[in-house]
Amino acid sequence: MENTLFIIFDVLNFGWVAFLWWFTLKNYNTLPEKIPVHFDLDGKPDRFGGKIYAYLMPVLAMLMFVLFVYITRHPEGANFPVEITEQNKGAQYLIMKVFLRVLFILIMVLFINNQDYMFRYSFDESAKPRIPMITIILSVIGFVPAMLLITHFFK
Questions:
Q1: Using CA atoms, how far apart are residues 56 and 24, in angstroms rounded to an integer?
Q2: DSSP 3-state assignment of 45?
Q3: Using CA atoms, how far apart are residues 119 and 72, in angstroms rounded to an integer?
Q4: Residue 99's pLDDT is what?
Q5: Separation CA 98–CA 78 (nearest Å)
Q6: pTM for the full model?
């Protein structure tokens, strides 16, 4: 059952990556030559570049997906915040496998939100991100200590 759920998670996470590629390819030709490529925490662009930068998020997402899948398939090579013993190995590997899959979802929400905002801002300077950047960033940052605390309880 556990493996089936993880396979479903991996397929859904790959779906996020495929959606980001589809969204980028669909909108690429309509982009102006100069697009915002970086935003501050208030959502204002602070760096601009050529429209080729629109492919940066999908490429990073694909590389991260491959890395996360590899790590979850080979947890023995990962770095854990606690010592791995025969007694805690199963629990620690399970926590790591769940953690990485949920973290990937949060990162993909950040990437897709950023890509959508970048495209919309390219045409309308009054556009706002659908989800405030600070909300997503704090969600990712807050998730990591929570998982470290959980791993500590099962050491």
A1: 10
A2: strand
A3: 33
A4: 86
A5: 14
A6: 0.85
